[in-house]
Design a protein that fits this description.
The chain has 7 helices and 10 strands. The protein is α/β, with parallel strands linked by helices. It has a 6-stranded parallel sheet, sandwiched between helices.
């Protein structure tokens, strides 16, 4: 299984979802079986009860899951059917970890962001990636879009989980794509300073992008 993580910097709404879906389409055209995961760093369990004026339209999956519209883009671009497993939120992560603590799964240990939250994030990413099959064939590549903006406190546990995966998986099995803003000035020149600061913030999280999309 190969993993491609897509992060975003500078500001939201840069098109991480379309970038992720487009990368997947290119890979599918080359004969790879591709699946995708969307990480949303909000404390809501899912998008079903969120105000569409704030969050946008909700996409309903085949299994009834109410998720971010990006998963709809993945399904249309890649011609696949995803499940609720492919939508990961902070709310789902915390709910699972707290329920495990109440059940005594941690044997009375102190439950912390590291390792318990990050371990649950990694488990869900791997589970979603490995559970996808098409005609008995498992996916070759899993695209993982990390929602939010690098530097936001909400995204930190997810970026830490990605950093850990980078260290745990073979280097040939993982790639990091960073989507950023490259504005033009009045003379039509591209300004790279916002991207420099964004990549600096990403590196402070222990991640080094292989590809930058501006």
């Amino acid at each position: 299984m190969k993993y491609i993580f897509v992060t975003g910097g500078v500001m939201s709404g840069l098109g991480k979802g379309i970038t992720t879906a487009s990368i997947g389409r290119i890979l599918k055209n080359r004969g790879f079986l591709v699946t995708a995961v969307k990480i949303d760093p909000y404390l809501n369990i899912d998008a079903g009860t969120m105000n569409p004026a704030q969050h946008g339209e909700v996409f309903v999956l085949k299994d009834g899951g109410e998720v971010d519209l990006d998963l709809g883009n993945y399904e249309r671009f890649l011609d696949i059917n995803l499940t609720s497993k492919h939508s990961i939120t902070t709310g789902k992560i915390y709910k699972t970890v707290i329920e495990k603590e109440r059940h005594g799964d941690y044997l009375g240990g102190t439950v912390q962001i590291i390792p318990h939250i990050t371990d649950e994030i990694k488990r869900r990413i791997k589970d979603a990636a490995e559970s996808y099959t098409e005609n008995g064939r498992k996916a070759d590549v899993c695209l993982v879009e990390v929602g939010g903006t690098v530097g936001d406190i909400e995204s930190m546990p997810f970026l830490e989980a990605v950093r850990q995966l980078v260290g745990e998986l073979p280097k040939s099995d993982i790639a990091l794509v960073h989507v950023t803003l490259v504005p033009e000035d009045n003379m039509g020149d591209h300004k790279t300073k916002p991207t420099q600061h964004s990549v600096k913030a990403l590196r402070e999280s222990g991640l080094h992008p292989d590809v930058i999309v501006g």
